[in-house]
């Protein structure tokens, strides 16, 4: 179960409308509001629509597209990191075996004592 933390209310202006939102971090809420406002203004600047609901939906689609691209990139990076980790572990094992062979059984017997 998620622990409830203290929340605060912050006012943000999005597309000339003021919204009072609750959250833990007012600065984070302000950044989110600024992002949505910026997207809505960018959409309205490139379109002929003045309907704020339509602008909001188009802005949401733009944000969703960015999110999906970032998630795909994140998956690629995680897969690359996993491959790199596997390669590093394999290489370390190989080097350990080479070192064991180079040092020979006598050395290993001496350090095991």
Automatic annotation (TrEMBL):
GO terms for biological process: cell division. Pfam families: ZapA (PF05164). Keywords: Cell cycle, Cell division, Cytoplasm, Septation. It is found in: Cytoplasm. Its main location: cytoplasm. Activator of cell division through the inhibition of FtsZ GTPase activity, therefore promoting FtsZ assembly into bundles of protofilaments necessary for the formation of the division Z ring. It is recruited early at mid-cell but it is not essential for cell division. Homodimer. Interacts with FtsZ. This is Cell division protein ZapA.
